[in-house]
């Protein structure tokens, strides 16, 4: 499928959905929409995602033909920016589907639904959970599968990236490994999953459990994409729900080098990662004891020498192997799974 990705004013640093699809998706990306950097290419900003020649354009009218427009931005609160309306309208008028991970459902927008009906296209709101979710039964530890969950010191620390890199490294090592997407970007990449942050609170654990149960017969190892952080003043509930619903055997703690406070909530400092490891383990203990497998450190803002130093310091703090999975891959963490076999 040929897609264009809308990322106005946020590409690439604040457009994690766009970057995730560019890096890991199977779709053929023909253009990125960003008014601020129009006239450049993806390679000018992200030389390592395999999409170097993809143009960054100002609007849908400037993009080559595509089958679907993806909303590649996940703003705080998941709202729809009215400055995007012309592009969504233009995409529909070009007979392209529109795929969105916002909390604002395009399929409930009167203008878009009328246009979609006229043009025979689909408005796909991937953040809309199934209607038949239920509470958890607490049965994951009884399944014949080993579960690894990524958890974070904050939002946007690279949990999805780490999870996908861990899956790739595990498969390269000969393990039968699967990916469990729990957020909008992971769902866009995988084509399945449940948006855990959109579920009814009572069903959050159950939704996570359902995703694992559906895949447990197919894989020996399941890597679950975490969300938020247990210390986040706004999003801790979804983190706890995934932790208890997944009943993970292992955790991978994700952090961004140099980040000292919760993004957008700077009055809330991030504790020492070692303290967070203990907090996650203590919280999991009454439901299903777990242990730290390793750490993932986002060193995007650092040069090679600085990154190496930061990773070494992070390893010392958490007492486990750590990697920047984008720079180095995740082999060092997966090796610990191999040692346990």
* Cα end-to-end separation: 39 Å
The number of distinct β-strands equals 14
What number of structural domains do the residues give?
Answer: 2
CATH homologous superfamily placement of the largest domain? P-loop containing nucleotide triphosphate hydrolases
Shape: globular
Helix and strand sequence = EHEHEEHEHEEHEHHEHEEEHEHEHH
The fraction of residues assigned to DSSP E strands is 15-25%
Low-confidence stretches are none
Q: What percent of the residues sit in helical stretches (DSSP H or I)?
A: 25-40%
CATH architecture of the largest domain: 3-Layer(aba) Sandwich
Walkthrough of the structure:
This protein has 341 residues and is of the alpha/beta class. It folds into two domains: 2-125, 3-Layer(aba) Sandwich (Rossmann fold); 140-340, Rossmann fold, CATH 3.40.50. The protein contains twelve helices and 14 strands. It has helices spanning 16-24, 42-45, 85-93, 110-119, 159-172, 184-190, 204-216, 236-246, 273-284, 304-318, 325-328, 331-340, and strands spanning 2-6, 28-33, 56-57, 68-71, 97-100, 123-125, 146-152, 177-180, 221-224, 250-256, 261-262, 265-269, 291-298, 322-323. A six-stranded parallel sheet has the order 3-2-1-4-5-6, sandwiched between helices. Strands 8-9-7-10-13-14 form a six-stranded parallel sheet, with helices on both faces. It has a two-stranded antiparallel ribbon with strand order 11-12. Helix 1 (16-24) packs parallel to helix 6 (184-190), helix 3 packs parallel to helix 4 and helix 7 runs parallel beside helix 8. It is globular, with a radius of gyration of 20 Å.
């Amino acid at each position: 499928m040929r897609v264009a990705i809308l990322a106005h004013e946020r590409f690439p640093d604040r457009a994690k959905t766009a970057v995730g699809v560019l890096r890991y998706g199977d779709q053929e990306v023909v253009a990125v929409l960003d008014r601020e950097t129009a006239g450049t290419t993806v390679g000018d900003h992200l030389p390592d995602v395999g999409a170097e020649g993809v143009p960054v354009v100002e609007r849908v009218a400037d993009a080559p033909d595509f089958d679907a427009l993806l909303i590649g931005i996940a703003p705080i609160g998941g709202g729809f920016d009215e400055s995007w309306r012309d592009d969504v309208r233009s995409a529909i008028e070009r007979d392209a589907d529109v795929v969105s991970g916002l909390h604002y459902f395009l399929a409930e927008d009167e203008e878009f639904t009328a246009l979609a009906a006229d043009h025979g296209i689909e408005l796909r709101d991937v953040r809309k959970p199934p209607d038949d979710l239920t509470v958890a039964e607490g049965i994951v530890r009884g399944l014949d599968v080993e579960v690894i969950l990524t958890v974070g010191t904050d939002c946007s620390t690279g949990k999805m990236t780490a999870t996908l890199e861990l899956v790739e490294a595990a498969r390269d090592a000969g393990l039968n490994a699967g990916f469990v997407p729990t957020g909008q970007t992971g769902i866009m990449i995988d084509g399945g999953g449940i948006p855990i942050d959109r579920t009814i609170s009572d069903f959050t654990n159950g939704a996570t459990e359902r995703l694992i149960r559906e895949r447990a017969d197919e894989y020996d190892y399941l890597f679950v994409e975490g969300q938020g952080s247990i210390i986040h003043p706004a999003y801790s509930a979804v983190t706890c729900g995934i932790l208890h619903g997944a009943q993970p055997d292992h955790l991978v703690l994700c952090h961004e080098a140099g980040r000292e406070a919760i993004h957008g909530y700077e009055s809330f400092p991030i504790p020492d990662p070692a303290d967070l490891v203990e907090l996650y383990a203590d919280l999991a203990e009454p439901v299903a004891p777990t242990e730290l497998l390793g750490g993932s450190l986002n060193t995007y803002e650092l040069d090679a020498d600085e990154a190496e130093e930061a990773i070494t310091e992070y390893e010392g703090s958490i007492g486990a192997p750590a990697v920047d999975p984008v720079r180095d891959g995740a082999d060092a963490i997966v090796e610990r799974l191999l040692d346990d076999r």
